Amino acid sequence: QLQLVESGGGLVHPGGSLRLSCATSGLTFSTSTMSWYRQAPGKERELVAVSASFGDFTNYADFVKGRFTISRDNAKTTVYLQMNDLKPEDSAVYYCNAAEPASRYNYWGQGTQVTVSS
Fold this sequence. Notes:
The chain is an all-beta fold. It is built from no helices and eleven strands.
């Protein structure tokens, strides 16, 4: 029943913007920490942004600070990643992650491709 489904990826020019969405179901969303990761071919998966379930706490990797914004809509059980001023090095498959306290487990979506190219 539990699902994480990413969408919103695509091909953009350097300096462009994309908004990724991660729609969830079967998840205790309001108490889960939601994160975005990315993985480029031949590279390790890396953390991009985190949204905690409390205190409006967010955290970002240094390489996206000032450009990316993570947000969540608890009513829609959806987390977003607004990506601005995209660079070629941002090209990767972006994955949604949910850390659910009730299950003490990290759930993953299947990813959405982001390609930044001129």
